[in-house]
Amino acid sequence: MVTSSSSAIFLLFGILTTNVGGAQSLDTQRTAERFTIDVSDAVLSDLSERLARTRWPDQLPGTGWTYGTDTAYLRGLVSYWRNGFDWRAQEARLNEFEHYRAWVGGMRIHFVHARSKDPDAIPLLLLHGWPSSFVQMLDIIPLLVDPAAHGLPSIPSFHVVAASLPGFGFSDIPTRPGVGFATSAEIMAELMHDVLNYSQYGVRGSDLGGNIVRQIALGHPDQVIGVHLTGMIGTAGAEPPFTPAEQAFIEADAATQTERAYARLQMSKPQTLAHALNDSPTGLAAWIIEKFRSWSDCNGDVENRFTKDELLTNLMIYWVTGTAPSSVRMYYDFSREPLTTGRIERPVGMLMSTKDLFPAAPREWGERFFNVERWVETDVGGHFLEWEEPKLVARELQTFFGSVTSFDNHILEHP
């Protein structure tokens, strides 16, 4: 077993190391190492014991999800987690993808790298948000790498890099304050350009990932051939006068402020929350599953969109790596760091879901901030579109990036 530089997670999973790119250490040469997810039996046994010892709260009769996570639903999910969920089967499925870790920005960053056989494929970085993880991207990766095999047009196809944000999943936990959007953007740009040697590439993100790809595009416009986004959370940065559609968006956004209480806490006192999330798997599930129910297009039943196995696999990524605390600390850091500002002049494609909890902005709002070349609204899928509607997103990515003409197709040698 090779230990991680993050002491909080180095005993929790194994790493199969295959050094790609030379014999020098990662401190002196940018390289990517093959990585295998291998959670120890001790971690799984400890998890089972903690689930069995859950101290359940009372719940007012008939309130369901009104006050937050429904205890009756969570009891059933936790029972399945302990007695029916097969982590080893999910682990094997995850390991069907090519995982790597690379030393970037003073920490190891985890990513899945799936390469197309098409010599003209476009490199594409996919970034998740919270409370998701890289598993949000797994269903869409095959559609992008080999679209013709999945009923989509054969071109364009993509070399996909689905990375875990710093402090999320199998990426290292930052050991210093201040790793927010701007720092994460520099890390991801270095990963794509300097580690994987893609001279130009596309970027797509939503939630936290959407903010990070915006920073990449502002800081490295020479590298980014196009930006694809879902959603614009919040109304900061725009000045009146507003069109009627923009005013309606501002009012709709204000109406969702109660739902953002989680973000206020994570931006102000994340370490207080961290103790509960890191100690109780049931508490972690309660904090995260409620968001999947509230933010997805599920009509009030989260399992209309996600199976128990999918929900629990995402939870396991947080639990076995101990990254729930660092994931919520990112909110504190991004709310205090200086950001690159300005209008993104690289081509931007927007895929806006009307079923996301956060209201869809009108096109004129987006054009204040972006060079919008494609704007699409959809009535299916919610906040986790790559997971909820992978074929829709894949086709939109093909359409948008297929129209970008500035890509010089110069791809350097990569691992």
3D structure, described in words:
This protein is α/β, with parallel strands linked by helices. The protein has one domain: Alpha/Beta hydrolase fold, catalytic domain (Rossmann fold, 3-Layer(aba) Sandwich). It is 38% helix and 15% strand. It has 15 helices and ten strands. A ten-stranded mixed β-sheet has the order 1-2-3-4-6-5-7-8-9-10, sandwiched between helices. The protein is globular. The chain starts with 18 loop residues before the first strand and ends in a 12-residue tail after the last helix. Mean pLDDT is 91; it is low at 1-29 and 406-415.
Index terms:
single chain; 415 residues; alpha/beta; Rossmann fold; 15% strand; globular
Summarize this, please?
The protein has 415 residues and is an alpha/beta fold. It contains 15 helices and 10 strands. Helix 1 packs antiparallel against helix 2, helix 9 packs antiparallel against helix 12 and helix 10 packs across helix 11.
Helix and strand arrangement:
Layout: E1 19-20, E2 32-35, H1 41-52, H2 71-83, H3 87-94, E3 99-104, E4 107-114, E5 122-127, H4 141-145, E6 158-163, H5 181-195, E7 201-206, H6 208-219, E8 224-230, H7 244-254, H8 261-268, H9 270-279, H10 281-295, H11 308-321, H12 324-334, E9 344-353, H13 363-369, E10 370-378, H14 385-388, H15 390-403
Parallel strand pairs: 5-6, 5-7, 7-8, 8-9, 9-10
Antiparallel strand pairs: 1-2, 2-3, 3-4, 4-6
